[in-house]
Amino acid sequence: MFINFCSAALRKQKGIGRKDIVTTQLIICLLIFAATLVSFIAGKFSMATTAVISMLLLVLTGCTDPETALSGFSNSNTIIMATMFVVSAGFSRTQMVSRMSHLVARISKGSFTKILAGYVLIIAVLTQFIQSSMACFSIVFPLACAICDEMGYSRSKMIFPIGIVSISTVSILPFGNSAVMYLTNNGYLESYHYTAYLFKMLDPMIARLPGMILIILYAIFFAPRLAPEKPVLEISTVESKFSAGDGRLSPLQEILGYVSFFGIVIMLLTQPLHNIPSWEITTIGAVIMVASGILRPRDAYQAMGLGGMVLLYAGMLALGSALTTTGAGSLVGNFLAGMVGNSRNNYVIGLLFFITPFILTQFMMNVAVVNIFIPIAIITSKSLACNPLGLIMLVWIASLTAFMTPMATPTVSMVMGLGGYDQKTMLKMSWLPAILMCVVNVFWVMTVFPAF
Q: Would you state the pLDDT for residue 414?
């Protein structure tokens, strides 16, 4: 998934050359965007309802076409989200979940920090081999929720920390597809005929490693302090939706539940070897859960619609696409290039090229943000005759650190539903790690890869 993201961004990078014009559709799109944010924060409607209303308004006003608006429901990430909910629901019915919860409780001796540290480190390792934050989060959250219920901890204290780690640490170490990220970056430079500076294989890891360490430490020791004591909204769960008469699974069903869940984990870990799409892997696992009787069909339907999270994400894809196609992102990007001007301060330039993509990636697909800002970083560097490597890495880091709104990534939608957070709570929990990531990454990257 990560390598597909890189390839798509590279294929589209030539789009920067067009002139940005403030059109009526752009203004309408921005108004709908602002109204959507206000509705999320106000909380008068459910977020899923707001997302659908936003999608309909975009279609009715011509900001996007019906095909694009509805494509969110067939998006591979949407399918992975829905099917992983089914797989997680089935796995939560097996005895292994409760047994693992008992084991973790004994090892941790009741320490919430030790339990959280264990799950955070597991997530951080998984994201180096599985290039999908959503898949990694889906593997861990059933166990994390079970231990919270077992030991009486609030899920709202656990879900956000493991969520931000799953989002912010994807493909940092040079394993699998991430080992060739430097070639993708060099492809950008070659396409703009600026090859005086080229990446080495370990450069992306060197640039991103301090941010990874920071977010892991923050998630373990500080994130729970900003998380609410109790869920702000009703927590979406998988197990509470089952009928009381389901009873225990048969030995064969137990085995099939393990095969389905751990089979998905193994297939995702080894994806570079077989190249089977992630959505096919998770869908097969979901089918096994239902066909074997681990879940009833009605339970699977309920799991797929968990708290409206799937509907929320599909609706928000339409808004992200509209912001891209109406030119909002390019308008901001070219404005940024003008702000840089003839500045020679490494940290000022780096700050601009981190903050702007970071803000936009909370509302637009990260592939679109990268597509806009990496070419701008290269062109700006070329005009100033400076080293573009640091600016390119800051764009990547900012674009892949999207944890503040459900428009950013499907993982955020899952985090909000499972943790019982509304948009206002997400902003309260996210502002501090956002500032820390900005300061640490800009200082480190522009020190190690200075523009001048």
A: 86
> CA-to-CA distance for 362 and 400, rounded, in angstroms?
10
- Indicate whether 342 belongs to any domain: yes
pLDDT per residue as tens digits for the range 328-337: 767 776 777 6
| H helical segments located in 169-308 | 181-191, 203-221, 223-226, 251-269, 271-274, 278-291, 297-304
**End-to-end C-alpha distance for the chain, whole angstroms:** 34
Full residue range of the structural domain in which residue 364 is found: 2-13+23-448
> Cβ neighbours of residue 267 under 8 Å, at least 6 residues apart?
274, 276, 281
DSSP state of 403: -
| Burial (Cβ within 10 Å: 0-12, 13-18, ≥19) of residue 230 | exposed
Reported as a single tens digit per residue, the pLDDT across 165-189 is 999 999 898 876 677 788 888 988 9
320-339 CB burial, b ≥16 within 10 A, e <16:
bbbbbbbbbbbbbbbebbee
Residue 29: both structure tokens together: 């799109």
Kindly report, residue by residue over 365-382, the tens digit of the pLDDT.
777 788 788 888 888 888
Give the burial string for 13-44 (b: 16+ CB within 10 Å, else e).
beebeeebeeeebbebbbebbeebbebbeeee
User: Rounded distance, CA 230 to CA 240, Å?
Assistant: 18
Other C-beta atoms lying within 10 Å of the C-beta of residue 116: 24
Helices (H), 249-277: 251-269, 271-274
DSSP state of 280: H
Contact 82, 300 (CB under 8 A): no
CB 197 within 8 A of CB 388: yes
The answer to the question of residue 416 being in a domain is yes
pTM of the predicted model, to two decimals?
Answer: 0.78
Q: Is residue 114 domain-resident? A: yes
Percentage with pLDDT > 70 across the chain: 90
Euclidean distance between CA atoms 55 and 412, whole angstroms: 19
CB 197 within 8 A of CB 142: no
Read off the pLDDT band of 432 (50, 70, 90). Answer: very high
- CA 19/CA 98 separation, integer angstroms: 58
Residue 89 lies in a domain: yes
Domain count of the fold of the chain: 1
User: 3-class secondary structure for 30-89?
Assistant: HHHHHHHHHHHHHCCCCHHHHHHHHHHHHHHCCCCCHHHHHHHHCCHHHHHHHHHHHHHH
